[in-house]
Structure formats: structure tokens, C-alpha cells
Design a protein that fits this description.
This protein is mostly helical. The chain has 2 domains: about 50 residues, Homeodomain-like (Arc Repressor Mutant, subunit A, Orthogonal Bundle), CATH 1.10.10.60; about 160 residues, Orthogonal Bundle (Tetracycline Repressor, domain 2). The protein is about 70% helix and about 0% strand. It contains 11 helices and no strands. The longest helix has about 30 residues. The radius of gyration is 19 Å and the shape is globular. The N and C termini lie far apart (about 60 Å).
Length: about 220
Amino acid sequence: MSDARPNETLDRVLIAAESLFAENGYDGTTLRQITQLAKVNLAAVNYHHGDKESLYLEIIRRRLQPINQSRLRNLTEAELQAGEAPVPLDTLVDIMARPLFELYADTDHGGRHAARLIGRSLVEPLPFMTKFLAEEFQPVMSRFGQALRRHAPTLSPEDFLWRLSFVVGAMLHALATLPRMKDLTRGICRDNDQAAARARFVQFAVRVFGPPESISQ
């Protein structure tokens, strides 16, 4: 198929694979579909990645690592500014959510596909991703969990962890459904409105972890 230089071939494979995995899922995507969309031969995929599992992990890793680095860097800066006090709850939640929603907004570089794929891979993790998620995702969520815990010290550990799970799930669900919000809400919400989704997610999470009086009974 293609006689492009190695770096160009690699980029085309990653872009094609990311869009297909985001649309069809891991099981619904074949290497043949990826090579056809990327206009490369199967040997190019095998040369760079070995198999479909390795290719999938590489796509998630190259997207999620910068996001997590940004999250931790911004969280550290916010904690330094706050001093002995907790980081304001809305700031904390926004630091956690903003990079994912901003990725979704980056339509020029495939960010929308990447955000959907990250959401899909975290909500429905594949068996071969267990080690990867333990290394790349869980430590970051643990750091945010510690910071959030300062705003909810009276909750039992079980109740706090359930709430954290619900909030993370809501964030990923929001990313997964952004392209279909008009249909899902019968026209009330707009498709792909990441700014509105992020703002409302922050409001929601603040109510979950805020004082008891902030949660509707």
C-alpha cells in the first residue's frame, strides 16, 4: 500500500486505529480495517506494535499519560497555593476533569476520538489493560481521592469511595455521550457541548463532596 516514511506510517496507523476503536470498540475493530483506513500494509502495524493489544495500549498510553501529568502538576501547584487549607472543591474537580474535556474539544488532532476511547477503556476495561490501569490511572485517582477526602472527613470510607466511584463514572459517561446528547435529551442539550458538560460536571461533583446541606434530599 504505502511507501511513507516510518514516522508518517506510524502516525497514520495510530490515527486510524484510534478513530476505529473509539467508534467500534476493541472487539469491533480489526487490523485489516485499521490498515485499510491508514492505507498501509499489515506488516507496518506488526513492525511498530506487534499485535492489536499492543496497538490499543499504545494509543491509550500516549493520550492518558500527558493528561495525568497535567492533572498532577496542576494539583501540586494548587496545593502549594492553598497552603494548609484544602484546595477549593470546585478548583479540585476542575483540575481533575478539565484535561479530558479539553481533549474532547481538540477536533484538529483527533481529540474527540481520543476522549471517547479513554472513556470507553476506563468504563469497560479490557482484561489485558489491568496492569496498565493499575500503573497509569489508579495512582492519579488516589491522589485526587486524598485531596477530595479533606472536603468530606465525616463520611465513612465506604461511603466516600462509592461517591468517588460515582463521580469518576459520571465524568467518563459524559464524555461517552457528548456526541449523542441532542438525541438522548430530545433536543434539550446540544451535541458535543464540552464546555457546558464540564461546567455542569463540576457543579455535580461539588454537590456530591460538599457539605451535607449542599446535597438535595
